[in-house]
Each structure stands twice: as C-alpha cells, then as structure tokens.
Amino acid sequence: MLAAEMGVTAILPEHPEASAFLPDRPFLGEAFDLVFCDGQVLRTHRRPEWRARYREAGRLSALLHKADAWRSVELLHAVRGFAAAVALFKPAPMHAKKSSFYLVATGVQPDRAAARAAVEKWKRDWYVATFGTLDDYRRNRATSREVVEGVLDDFGEELCRLGGPVWEIQEKAPRRAIKSGWGSQAKQPAQEDARAVTRACGSRDPVAER
User: β-strand 54-65 against 32-37: which pairing, if any?
Assistant: First the structure.
C-alpha cells in the first residue's frame, strides 16, 4: 500500500502488515486526464490503495455499490462538489442483477476547495480504517441525522434522478431471469463493460483498437 500517498510516512513496526506499506510516490508530479478507481475488497485479495492526480477538467470512473447506501450517497455528493457533471452508469450485460454501478464524473476540478476537503476526509477515513481500532472505525463512520438530512436536502432530488436508471435496470433483471430460466443467460464478455464505461467517459474504445 502506498502509505506516503496518503500522508503517512511513519509505520509502527508492530503493525501486522508493516512490511506492506511503501514509502514510494510513483505518481508524484504526474497528472492524468482519465482515472479509474477500483479499490473494492474481494474475497481473493486485500485492499489495494493508490492515488493519482488529475489534470484540470479530467474525468473519473469509479465502481461503486448500492446507490442508495449512505456511503455511496456521501461519496456522490462529495464528487458532485468538484465535478462539472456526474452520471451513474450500469452496464446491463454484467451488472444488471448486481448492486454495482459506475460513477462517471467529467470536468473534475482538483484545485477546488471541495476537492481538497474531500481528499483530506478520504485520507482520514483510510487512516482510521487502517491503523485505528474497531471502535475508532465505528466512531469515524457514525453520521448524525442532521448531516444526513442536510445532504438529502441538497442532493436528494439529484440522487433520485441519477439513480433512477440504475435502479430500473436492477429491478427488471430478476424478472427477465425468471422468465428465461435462472442461469440460462450466457454471460457477456467483460470487454462489453469496458467499452460501455469508456464510451460514457468520452474516450476511445481501447478494445476495438487492439
């Protein structure tokens, strides 16, 4: 894990994964037009951590789950504060029956105060989750009703507009599966998702160019 990218340079030797934290900053001085973010913890691997820097008006694509869950709502609200446009995208071939979806943000403004505040919060969240106790983590994740209501007052209508197509696809998928027989639909190649997200980001199709 690139701890130095998260502002952590001193790792306690007694930490169970002390050797996994690296002082390297491979993205220092670099800036990118398009960044894909995917740090989900899967059954087969531990959480990877990396951070990259954006050029002005860059684009971001992140794989998320459950658009109505508070963690997703909080993240979407934060990104909307420093991006010109935010969209949610759910490729039907591979994600229809799942809670997963893609956040696609364009016109990312990394120098906005909202962007800096969001990054600092994400760094604190990472630090507590990585080095804190379970109680520390629970306290850090606790959110007051006033904060939730404030976000929903500011972002609720837009969240419904953004999430509507995602929920519609997910709601219809089980019905189609039941009609056609569970498991009878062959899975589409993963490249279909890659093409779909690339089109949503406004980039060229890397699969077609091979």
Answer: parallel
CA distance 138 to 191: 38
Q: Into how many domains does the chain fold?
A: 1
Give CA–CA dist 80/163, Å, rounded: 14
Longest dimension (CA), the chain: 57
pLDDT digits (tens, 9 = 90+) for 144-199: 999 999 999 999 999 999 999 988 888 887 666 556 655 444 444 444 544 554 45
Task: Mention every residue, 6+ apart, whose C-beta is less than 8 A from residue 88.
Answer: 67, 76, 101, 102, 103, 104, 162, 163, 165, 166
Compute, in degrees rounded to 10, the torsion defined by CA atoms 44, 105, 69, 65: -30
CA distance 103 to 86: 7
Q: Is residue 110 part of a domain?
A: yes
Domain range holding 173?
Answer: 3-147+154-191
**Which amino acid is it at 35?**
V
In a domain, 203, yes or no: no
The answer to whether position 109 is within a domain reads yes
